[in-house]
Amino acid sequence: MSSINGYPARPSVRAGEVIRLHIATSAARFRVDFYRWGSTPQHMARIEWPGRAAVPGRYDQDWQWPAYDFHVPHNWQSGVYIAVLSTGSRPSTPPMDSREARMLLVVTPSAPSGRKVLYKIPVSTYHAYNTAGGGSLYSASRVTMRRPGGGVGGPVKGLPDPYDLTSPRQTFAHWDARFISWMEENGIESDYCTDLDLHQGRHLDDGYRLLVSAGHDEYWSAQTRRHVTAFRNAGGNVANFGANTCWWRVKVDERDVGLECSKFPPGAPVGIDPDSSHGCPDHWWESDPENALLGASYRNGGGHWDGPRAPLGFTITDADHWVFEGTGLKTGDVLGSDGALIGYECDGAAYETDEQGRPRPTGKDGTPEGFEILGTAQLPSDWNFAAREATSSPRVATLGLLRATGTVFTAATTDWPRLLATDPQVEAITRNVITRLS
Fold first, then answer.
1. Per-block average pLDDT, block size 10, for the chain (438 residues)?
2. What is 4-107's CATH number?
């Protein structure tokens, strides 16, 4: 079979507009099948084009592969679409996840839809871990989004997940796909956008009550954060079913094509771990702590990447809270330990205990007083801990709710989506949060 791969000129497109796809193949002709991701993949369209060959580029330069324009139908529902590239026969419904011959597109509404939930796809994080062209934001300070990958269709940096070997962690399939499947199986209507859309100031003024993110939404631009903060301050709600969120500040170039991130302190030796270092230019927490928006930070939590980890869950500190309605949980019960809910990365807030022995934030790390700690998980000494200020507060993942003008829920663990389909208590909490905040 002839080789084929490709990438979109931009990661999202409004329904009814034209999206430019860049595709290279050694075949004379090729086919593109478009599937909308939901409870099951839904075939939406097929198109054939003559093939043109091209050579791979560098990780930090626009690959400039042959261009093909596709008009997205007006009636396509907002969602995540997988473009499957093929040059020969294939199964009637091919696997949606692959390290080649796949492209991820997000179709956004052509006009305000009246839906109350907006789901954010973290394209910047996908590309930070994408190693197509020989580099990523873990080996260089700049990458291009015009190369294969970005959620699907490209090689990915990172170790396998021992709890789910079916897909690499830093891909659409690993966390976002299963969360979206659960939403659509349960009749939760949502529109979809990318973080680049939010960076450009789109969609958050279109009547949504709730912005949802899940899994691993690590790289945020200053503009994205500013717009999400303004949404919250105007009364919009945020549900963060993930962790390590807004950890690195990323800069988007003037063409909305390149991403830059300065991770290392000036003069840092080769091989230093920036997560365990101070003085990193684009650590959000060192200049404008993400706690102020989300209530928790990765620097007060940590990660365990290599192999299985201690099976930790959240010890519930206030089971009477509406978040836990219908779960059967009581104060002191542990949520999710059987499924190793805490990890592979988790967030926390510096805290102290009050007269009743309940945890409350100290605020010394930037967490606002309005953050309610609903569950805690003390982390073992063998976890990888990020840099933090000197404090007597222990290393604890903190499930919680931040009340500002709008409300922010933080699950404080990347693996929340992994347990969503198998743990009825995790499912009930998720349903409560989305129902209440939307």
1. 90 98 97 96 97 98 98 97 91 88 97 96 98 97 98 96 96 97 97 98 97 98 98 98 98 96 90 89 95 96 92 97 98 97 96 91 93 97 88 90 96 98 97 98
2. 2.60.40
Indicate the angle between helix axes 424-437 and 176-185, nearest 10 degrees: 70
For residue 229, which phi and psi values (nearest 5 degrees)? -60, -45
Sign of CA pseudo-dihedral 382, 377, 120, 69: positive
Which long-range CB contacts under 8 A does 281-289 form with residues at least 24 apart? Answer: 282/248, 282/249, 282/250, 282/251, 283/247, 283/248, 283/249, 283/387, 284/220, 284/225, 284/246, 284/247, 284/248, 284/249, 285/247, 285/365, 285/366, 287/249, 288/225, 289/365, 289/366, 289/367
Q: How does DSSP classify residue 26? A: S
Domain ranges of the chain: 4-107, 209-437
How far apart are the C-alpha atoms of 403 and 405, rounded to whole Å? 7
